[in-house]
Amino acid sequence: MKYQFPENFWWGSAASGPQTEGVYEGDGKGQNIWDYWYEQEPTKFFHQVGPEKTSRFYEKYKEDIQLMKETGHNSFRTSIQWSRLFPEGAGEVNQKAVDFYNAVIDELIANDIEPFINLYHFDMPMALQEKGGWLNRETVEAYVVFAKTCFELFGDRVKKWFTHNEPVVPVEGGYLYQFHYPNVVDMKKAVQVGYHEVLASAKAIKVYHEMNQTGEIGIILNLTPSYPRDENNPEDVKAAAIADAIFNRSFLDSSVKGEFPQDLIELLRDIDHLPEIETGDLETIKENAVDLLGVNYYQPRRIKAKETTTKLAEGPMPDDYFDNYIMPGRKMNPYRGWEIYEKGIYDILTNLRENYGNIRCFISENGMGVEGEEDYINADGSIEDDYRIEFVKDHLAYVHQAIQEGSNVQGYHMWTCMDNWSWTNAYKNRYGFIAVDLEQEGKRTIKKSGRWFKEMTDQNGFNA
Ligand code: BGP
């Protein structure tokens, strides 16, 4: 069967500033929470590898952009590091950062690769974190200044902007499950942090539109479809709906419909965890929905009604309402421990079509990582990552089906192009279709999947 995609489909990959740039303390960059946390607790990081050891995009961006071209990109997403542009989070702009991002944007455009720029990818400047980070409402205002500065500096050439990548992750990681700084467990704080992220996003969208910019602005969400263990068991169905409200609809409804889901509001009210909201906030959120939605998809969430009695924390936690469940017999990613469920991507796109006004969207991350070293390297140095090609094909087949049925999908970006540093997982999972050899000054080698991606994008589709 031939899977042919619409004309002008966006093909490419996604990355982020903190995971690729390097020069983490050079050229005027300020400290962010990752730099700080690594300094304080290096053992939290896989093999104790911290944010200083990236793929060095700061120096190698020209070479990398050529490789993007060679692997068939017509678009590429990265983020502007807040602490590079504003070393203190607010105040003086770092001119070296302006020069660097100008150079990257110009180089992409010169190579016919459209820059997609995200503003926040988990990288709170430490000067703001010291005052509470997203917990402090002042951070919302600092973020709006950061966003406005980016639109002013780069908006003449950047026409696709995103306010956040996966805003639920700093909430889960920093305030519930301890894989981001500040590494606390407190659901009330988690709710306030998430609320401020939503408000910051709406305010940035408002500014963008008021500036009469000529592009589009959206948000990137990791939508994790929540399936009940047994669709005929009302308790499982109810538990799955709660997980969906907390982890998906919290950000999806507020970004696309401009309002928070009623069941989530009721749940939070019952435990006295509603966030502090100021007059006018809800109107701002209502009036500033996104133009465009990025969907990151890696894995589904399987849910069953609560059976365990163990409590993860003294106060309320999302896990008080459901248990996660591993469905027997399912295909798993042996490297990451995640279920591989290709149809999940189709279910998300169908849901967006049926319940979210068929919002203009694209797949902004999808991919598979290998844990540990790349032991699939042949003696001659070639890298045969057929499993990655299969993974992408299987997901693209479902994206294709959704498009056939009317979903408004504009593109597909893989996570990621170059193997890169990934937060506390460092280089545990190598997702790139281009290998990066850290022992050899970051030498790049296109993997089999990178060559396949080029062929596929040249034909705007593939046979399977
Ligand atoms: C996404 C993030 C990326 C990247 C990716 C892989 O959630 O947007 O920043 O980290 O996941 O993550 P990991 O290496 O933890 O599997």
UniProtKB/TrEMBL annotation:
Keyword Hydrolase: yes
Active-site residues, Swiss-Prot/TrEMBL: 365 (nucleophile)
Database matches in InterPro entries: GH, Glyco_hydro_1, Glyco_hydro_1_AS
Enzyme kind, highest EC tier: hydrolase
Keywords in alphabetical order: Glycosidase, Hydrolase
A molecular function GO annotation: hydrolase activity, acting on glycosyl bonds
EC number(s) recorded for this UniProt protein: 3.2.1.-
Protein family membership: Belongs to the glycosyl hydrolase 1 family.
Stated name of the protein: Glycoside hydrolase family 1 protein
